[in-house]
Amino acid sequence: MFAARCxxxxxxxxxxxxxxxxxRVERHHIVVRFVCWCGxxxxxxxxxxxxxxxAGPPHDVFGRRxxx
Length: 68
Fold this sequence. Notes:
Largest sheet: 3 strands, antiparallel
Structural class: mainly beta
Number of domains: 1
Distance between the termini: 24 Å
């Protein structure tokens, strides 16, 4: 489940992954399109994560280097 802002309802709503209609990867963002329970079609953008912007130093897990 995820929370998204429904502009039609004017509030954040809790939706299941079945409400996602598209996930598009752009250069610096991930765009998620969804359909709210009320029928409104909306979208939001999240920044892409990379190893350079994850918090925490690397550490060993089962003998392999992992990011925290």
